[in-house]
Sequence to fold (568 residues):
Amino acid sequence: MSAEVPEGASAEEQKEMEDKVTSPEKAEEAKLKARYPHLGQKPGGSDFLRKRLQKGQKYFDSGDYNMAKAKMKNKQLPTAAPDKTEVTGDHIPTPQDLPQRKPSLVTSKLAG
Amino acid sequence: MFLKFSLRSVFNGAGGGNDIQWCFSQVKGAVDDDVAEDIISTVEFNHSGELLATGDKGGRVVIFQQEQENKIQSHSRGEYNVYSTFQSHEPEFDYLKSLEIEEKINKIRWLPQKNAAQFLLSTNDKTIKLWKISERDKRPEGYNLKEEDGRYRDPTTVTTLRVPVFRPMDLMVEASPRRIFANAHTYHINSISINSDYETYLSADDLRINLWHLEITDRSFNIVDIKPANMEELTEVITAAEFHPNSCNTFVYSSSKGTIRLCDMRASALCDRHSKLFEEPEDPSNRSFFSEIISSISDVKFSHSGRYMMTRDYLSVKIWDLNMENRPVETYQVHEYLRSKLCSLYENDCIFDKFECCWNGSDSVVMTGSYNNFFRMFDRNTKRDITLEASRENNKPRTVLKPRKVCASGKRKKDEISVDSLDFNKKILHTAWHPKENIIAVATTNNLYIFQDKVN
Fold:
């Protein structure tokens, strides 16, 4: 977890070593922040957790569904934002997308 | 008491993970098919090791049984063959909450055997089921009022009476759901654990832990609730929970912040206040965006002895002594070379992968999975570790597995694999170790591998 610094080195020597050997984690963090400048300030905080708790949420809007069914060619389907803090549902379901929730009738291949 | 400890250390020697030569034994599953339903989501041996259960994303359970050893030809221990398979859970939709409920089996836990039948608990995100698996090897024949094919006979045609008798039949293994424990979890169940009293068990979701009695399905006691009054203040969730193997009043739960809390049910009805808090201090100057994410504990397992517990976070496995809360007693790096790849692992979501870990029967070796279908074993006594691969390329029985090595940087030696060549889609999240012998079950995405140590 912490950068490899030999025990017994004085405080100044340790700081020097750490400056030279950039923590790989911090280097990765810099890379991420460069790609996603708007990434939430709170590291790994509530956003991830809320997204985790909302897993499985499938919102259905009958108006959108009917419009998609009527094949409105001009309708712009919003794309999923690259921003990882977005937690809302990410696309409008079309008839093909609605999952046919049938139980699995096929025997597991592990038993084959 | 002292005698017990010295006996234990004598037996520990023969079983070290690296004195063992692991050999391929069996592989189950399709070769090429990539069907989502086939993704294995849990693997568990029963208490004797005779049975091995798997659960998958399609809600199915497959149970394998070890065949009795052939005394004459003991090249290897018995093979595992299909014993029973059934659909445990089905997909559901909660219309009230607009919530899709996956049928994926998150965990299977076996009950100790009490009679001829076997019992296991299986759970998806919302519902836990108790399944009874029983054998039928004889059937009654010679009814007076029924034909052999089941049709009823006209009573007026019966002229003589006979006594029905049991006749042997081909073995039939039947699975039936005996209890359904539903509607107790608002959030997604991540763990179930059977108490050492064999009467109660706990189920844990992201924010709450409930205590059940195996006989009672309409009631459950909430024993931990970490839901904040205002959800905006949510900072951590429960990631795993387990009962102590011997003390029926003790359980632990781990969090997304890398802490483990030990709770004593004798202290109060609601165990929101822990008895012990296990947390390794962190150097604040090392903190990064990724620190909390990679410290999230994906699995917690007590040792068989009950003295230690093991936790798995993204990069390491830690062994904690229950008597020491301020730091683990042992830390093993699973794939430290990934620390310099965290940015891409965050982008492809791999950083959120939940790896499990397990102990061997004597608590001397621990095992966990990694990427590229690699899995790792750490011998606590010799401090040696080994990396092995679950691959169909090594699938001749009794072929000794060759150790693998990942080259983190610099010049790659022959037979080493570089970090950039690792396949992050091939993850080994679930592994299990036979409770008594050196037999391990390793699940790749949709295949189950069984390895054994080389006999004689």
